[in-house]
Amino acid sequence: MSNKQQQEEVLDWHRADVIAALRKSGWTLSSLSKHVGLSRGTLAVALDRKYPKGEAIIAEAIGTAPQHIWPTRYAPKHRTPVTKPIVNAKQKNEHDSLSDRVMKAA
User: Shortest CA distance to 48 belongs to which of 12, 22, 75?
Assistant: First the structure.
């Protein structure tokens, strides 16, 4: 399989496709939002950015899993976590002494 084919397989659905699938299921974003007790425009947030609760509601209405609609949002992340920088000397000293205690205990 080529790189291009792999990239195409992990693309999220286009927002118009999500809306069309909802309409085919008898819903609009607004009516579904109201039906589940959310304000009218709340579920529209899930079309543009990560919103797990909204994604689950939309996916259930369509009859599929959120991972199928938004695979890039649920793909495992393969990156090194960023550590928080030490802000001042006092914190650095506390960090160093903690590291020393951990190393001695090991």
Answer: 12
**How many distinct helices (H) and strands (E) make up the chain?**
8, 0
Check the CA dihedral 91-94-100-102 and report its sign. negative
Express each pLDDT in 8-27 by its tens digit. Answer: 567 999 999 999 999 999 99
Please tell me what DSSP assigns to residue 87.
-
For the chain, domains (ranges, CATH) are 3-74 (1.10.260.40)
Q: Is the dihedral of CA 41, 47, 48, 51 positive or negative?
A: positive
CB atoms within 10 A of CB 102: 9
Non-local CB neighbours of 35 within 8 Å, separated by 6+ positions: 27
pTM of the model: 0.65
**Residue 56: which of 77, 70, 75 has the closest Cα?**
70
Tell me phi and psi for residue 55, to 5 degrees. Answer: -60, -40
